[in-house]
Design a protein that fits this description.
2 domains; 129 residues; two-stranded antiparallel ribbon; mainly alpha; Multidrug-efflux Transporter Regulator, Chain: A, Domain 2; 2 strands
């Protein structure tokens, strides 16, 4: 199937499918004309990739995850998750945790100023009345 049909079947924009290919997340065959040709398995792969992206997983982590998943399907070995993959996800977890802490700090600062502004507003209104 061509990219347009894959897009319709998965409801993933063509532009995004091309991006997934750029990142190595999809690997369509190429016809001599240069057209991409997707297999039936690419429907499931594209859907999975899209789901992982929407859940917030960066594409740089999706590729090694997909590669590990493909190896497990061939070997049947789910027990060994590989030190490299664990290290990648540890680093991503630490990055996200740092962002959460930073956002929490910002949220608390905004909340503090908002309370102060609301209190000042109420005090001004009661003074005027």
């Amino acid at each position: 199937m061509r990219i347009g049909e894959l897009s319709k079947r998965t409801r993933i924009p063509i532009r995004m499918l091309r991006y997934y290919e750029e990142r190595g997340l999809l690997k369509p065959e190429r016809a001599p004309s240069g057209y991409r040709h997707y297999q039936e398995a690419d429907v499931e792969q594209a859907t999975l990739v899209s789901s992982l992206v929407r859940s917030g997983l960066p594409t740089r982590l999706i590729l090694p995850l997909l590669q590990k998943n493909q190896l497990n399907q061939v070997d049947g070995d789910e027990a060994d998750d590989g030190d490299d993959l664990v290290a990648l996800f540890d680093a991503e977890f630490a990055r996200l945790d740092s962002q959460v802490k930073c956002l929490s700090f910002s949220r608390n600062a905004v909340q503090k100023h908002l309370r102060r502004l609301r209190t000042n507003r109420v005090n001004q209104e009661s003074t005027v009345a």
